[in-house]
Design goal:
single chain; about 475 residues; 26 strands; about 35% strand; 6-stranded mixed beta sheet; alpha+beta; 5-stranded mixed beta sheet
Length: about 475
């Protein structure tokens, strides 16, 4: 069964596929693994993705970017004032006013979302001819309410996707790296650090019993755009020194320089030097400059300090220190910046910093992994908040008191089932086992006995906690069938 996961950000959108136990990102026909979340209106058509982004300088007033924030109602007056596209509000509804097919046209944020999802649907069809039948999981920010989630779900459904579930971007990032999934007894704290095009968020997550509990989060309206601006100022100063002209006061000139700066930023995430070339930047003059990563890192110092500033208070709010974080998951395109990665490694010297996947692909991969787990029909009302047990359930075999077996770890969600192997002392014909509530073994839940065992016996203790918290425990000898 083929399953899809989609992460829609403000600046980019990524599609991942899970098939036959393998998960990977689906590239667009142009070979791009991540598609710019840009939609442009022209005299003849609606253009989506890279082509729309590349032509933006020539079509600023009809090219829509950062639609995710507008769709979620996160619309500030500053954004309206600075937007090259006219944004109006009527009866609490938001519209973009653009020119399309030589006439004025009003498009809502949902229309833009549908166009983006349709473009992604076309990419998905290159991978599977039955996209409409495949499970699809979407990701949304953890603070989206039911109305915002339905808005996104409807847009993807209109584009032709079978949306089976929506999960938080934080949970998807954890799923991409299988945090706590391979060994359910694992219990540790992780930091999910997401830095995108216009925002940064960080969440402290408790990984325990195969589940993720978000303990605290912090959001910041800073991202790749601010890193670009640092480069624009640097390159602008270099241009002024060479040509004695301030290119930054020229709106179009600054926009062209910003496009070159973004390219430099991406190159410097993998190479030590990047070449910036802007054709006819001012009065027919071309601009050419080499930027080293060392120089870029130097310029970025304040940006990195500001982006990481909320970390200390975030950890303090949940009673943790940097030493308590076992893993750091890097997501979002801006997390590719080497200086940012180095700074996070410095802050969490004991933690494993997860960078196996490209940061801007992580959330989509996690969504596809989740989609592959779903086998039933559409999950309409998935609960992201679930009941969980507040203590370990452990077992001790009589005669082997030093060996405490964890049957179910603390924070395991209810309902749940789990089985663990049990070993009896050598050459015994019977086994007595006590199950306790808590690692300190002060509260005994029950005692189980099994007769007629031998050295060939393979014994298993199973626990099943039902929705009403009633608990069923079974000790069975798989060899003889006795229980």
């Amino acid at each position: 069964m083929t399953s899809f996961g989609i992460h829609m950000g403000n600046t980019s959108v990524c599609l991942a596929v899970s098939k036959e136990g393998k998960t990977d990102v689906v590239a667009s026909p142009t070979g791009d693994r991540v598609t710019p979340a840009v939609v442009a209106f022209t005299d003849s058509e609606i253009i989506v993705g890279l082509a729309a982004k590349q032509a933006r300088l020539r079509n600023m007033s009809n090219t829509i970017i950062n639609n995710k924030n507008v769709a979620a109602g996160k619309l500030t007056q500053q954004w309206i004032d600075s937007s090259p596209v006219t944004i109006t509000q009527n009866n609490n509804r938001i519209f973009y006013e653009v020119e399309y097919k030589e006439r004025e046209w009003k498009a809502g944020p949902s229309d833009i979302l549908v166009n983006l999802y349709k473009y992604i649907h076309d990419i998905a069809e290159t991978h599977s001819s039955e996209v409409d039948q495949c499970n699809c999981v979407l990701t949304v920010p953890r603070d989206y309410n039911e109305g915002q989630r339905n808005f996104v779900r409807e847009a993807a459904s209109k584009a032709g996707f079978k949306v089976t579930q929506m999960i938080s971007e934080t949970a998807a990032a954890c799923l991409a790296y299988s945090l706590g999934q391979d060994e359910l007894s694992e219990r540790y704290h992780a930091l999910v650090f997401r830095s995108g095009g216009i925002s940064t968020s960080m969440s402290v997550v408790l990984v325990s019993g195969g589940t993720f509990s978000i303990l605290a989060s912090s959001d910041l309206e800073m991202g790749g755009d601010q890193a670009d601006e640092v480069l624009v100022q640097y390159l602008g100063a270099e241009f002024k020194q060479k040509y004695k002209e301030d290119i930054l006061v020229n709106k179009r000139g600054k926009a062209k320089l910003a496009k070159g700066a973004e390219t430099v930023k991406h190159v410097l995430s993998t190479l030590d030097t990047a070449h910036c070339f802007v054709e006819s930047l001012f009065d027919g003059m071309d601009f050419s400059s080499n930027v080293t990563r060392a120089r870029f890192d130097n310029q970025l110092s304040k940006f990195v300090i500001d982006v990481l500033a909320p970390l200390s208070s975030l950890l303090t709010s949940v009673g943790l220190t940097t030493a308590d974080i076992a893993k750091v998951v890097m997501t979002g395109g801006t997390s590719k910046i080497v200086k940012l990665q180095t700074a996070l490694r410095g802050k969490f010297p004991n933690a494993e910093v997860m960078t196996n996947y490209a940061p801007d692909e992580v959330i989509a991969i996690g969504a596809a992994v989740q989609a592959s787990y779903i086998t039933n029909e559409t999950t309409q009302n998935c609960r992201e908040k679930m009941l969980s047990i507040s203590n370990n359930i452990v077992a001790v075999v009589e005669g082997c008191e030093d060996n405490v077996i964890t049957v179910l770890p603390e924070d395991s969600t209810v309902p749940c089932k789990r089985s663990v192997p049990i070993t009896a002392p050598a050459d015994q014909e019977n086994i007595d086992l006590t199950v306790y509530w808590g690692q300190d073994k002060t509260v005994a839940l029950t005692k189980l006995s099994l007769d007629g065992i031998s050295n060939k016996s393979k014994m298993v203790l199973s626990v099943h906690i039902h929705r009403d918290a009633s608990t069923h425990l079974t000790l069975v000898d798989k060899t003889s069938g006795n229980s």
